[in-house]
Structures are given as structure tokens and as C-alpha cells.
Amino acid sequence: MQPAHVAPKGHVQAELGMDISIPTGSISDLVDVATVLVDASDDRDLTQAEVDQIYAAAGSLALNPPSVTPHIGVGYTPIDNLEVSLRFATSSLRLGGRYQFLNGEKHGVDASVGLGLGYYILPLPLGDTLQIVELEDFTRFQIDVPLVFGKQGNWYRIWGGPRFMYTHFGTSLKLAIPEDVAKAIAGRSELASFGGNAFYVGGQGGVAVGYKHVFFGFELTLVQLISNGNLQVLNQTVRELDHNSFIVYPALGFMGEF
């Protein structure tokens, strides 16, 4: 939710919005299988292979869960064409910077390139999908490089360009499966860990309408997730997980320049 240009020196750009993460492919398939197994755990003991499948799905959700994410960001231009920004999105903080190297008045188009450093201060919520899994010791940081081209006017903003992001992640997974439906306190608890690296490669495009200082915008980001991870149960490697999925991020929000 940032246009291609940065604000004039001494001014601020801000955004307040919400995006939706919709993973497809292997992540979606793993979660569908695990959901069936979670329901089955109320009535019978699961095999170790089935438990490992639930762990694999939980690892997928820890990397990129289906979610609705509110976010707020503020960018300030201390010198001409250079912006520094801070963004908060539910679980993460991102410190970033952008440099505008093309200006619409001189070159016919605005263009900027940026660098962002993000860190998750809270674990990603798994929600009710895998309610028998808890995340512990969750860590994740990421680096992103946006390149944006666009046009602007008093009543509109149009922007688009490629997106690249690298992330490193790790978490412990705690699983408690009831073994006796009649005895709620009975159960089996195990510990697993999942960690690895991932790349998001794709593009984004957006449009906003308003007047002078405040605009309402829609943005669509489409990326390919390329990930490799290691799933360990009781300190034993049980599976190498490659999560290659296509992810859709539609977003809505308000943008301001003051």
C-alpha cells in the first residue's frame, strides 16, 4: 500500500489497511489432510505417520497461514527522494527505506526502489484449523526488496512492480492428542521443531482514488513461495519439507500524504 513516489522533503506518507493471505498448492493440501486427522483424533489413536502429517501442516501454517492481516505504516522523507518507514502488521514490525530515482514531472513516470527488514514479535496464529497444535519459541525475520513504478495526480495513484522477499523461520510445535474421549485430561504430548528458509517472488499492482491528501486503494500481490524446511520430532529428522505454493494477497486500505 505504497505508491511509486515518496513524499516531498519534510512530509509524511501513511497507510492503514488490511490484506488477506490465500495460499494454494501444497500448503492448502497439507492443511486439508491434517484437518481430517485432527477430527479423527477425537475417536482413535493416530499413527506416528499421521502425527507427522499434522506437524507438517502446522509447519506450513507457521510459514504462511490463510489470514486477514490489518496493518499500519508511516514513512517520512528527511531528504529529497529518500524515505524511511515503520510498519506494524498484527505480528510483525518492518523497518524500511525507499529511494525515488524517477520523477513523473521529469521522466513521465515515478519509480522507487526499497529495502525492508522485518521481524515477527509474535507467532503467526494457527486459528481453529489445527487447534491441537501450539507454537513455541517462534522466530522469523525477513528481507524484502520492492521496485515500484507508477503515476500520480490530484485524484489518483497507480503503481505496480516486482516483489522479492527472503525469510528465515523456526518454531517448536507442541501437540496434545486426546487418547480417551471420555477422559479429557488424558493425552499424549510430543515436541517437534520446524525451520528453514523461503523466498517469495512475484509482483504487485494497485490503484487508489481520492483527493490531494487522502486516498482509498486496492492492491493485489501475487507471489510464488519457494521454501525448504526441516521437520524434526524428538530431535530426529522425519521429513524434508518443500513448500512451493502460489499465494494471493488482495489488500484494501487508506493512504495519506501530509
Give a brief description.
The protein is mostly beta strands and 258 residues long. The protein has helices spanning 26-40, 48-63, 104-107; strands spanning 12-23, 67-79, 82-89, 92-102, 110-120, 133-152, 156-177, 188-211, 214-233, 236-241, 244-257.
Describe this protein's structure.
The chain starts with 11 loop residues before the first strand and ends with a strand. Helix 1 (26-40) packs across helix 2 (48-63). The chain has one domain (12-257). Strands 1-2-3-4-5-6-7-8-9-11 form a ten-stranded antiparallel beta barrel. The protein is built from three helices and eleven strands. The longest helix is centred in the first third of the chain and has 16 residues, at 48-63. Helix content is 14%, strand content 62%. With 258 residues, the chain is mainly beta.
C-alpha termini separation: 16 Å
Task: Work out the number of β strands.
Answer: 11
Domain module tally:
1
Strand content: over 45%
Strand order of the largest sheet: 1-2-3-4-5-6-7-8-9-11
Low-confidence stretches: 180-187
Q: What's the helical proportion of residues?
A: 10-25%
Counted by DSSP, the helix tally is 3
Q: Mean pLDDT, nearest integer? A: 84
Q: What composes the largest sheet?
A: 10 strands, antiparallel, barrel
Order of helices and strands: EHHEEEHEEEEEEE
Q: Report Rg.
A: 21 Å
Principal-axis shape: elongated
Question: Structural class of the helix and strand makeup?
Answer: mainly beta
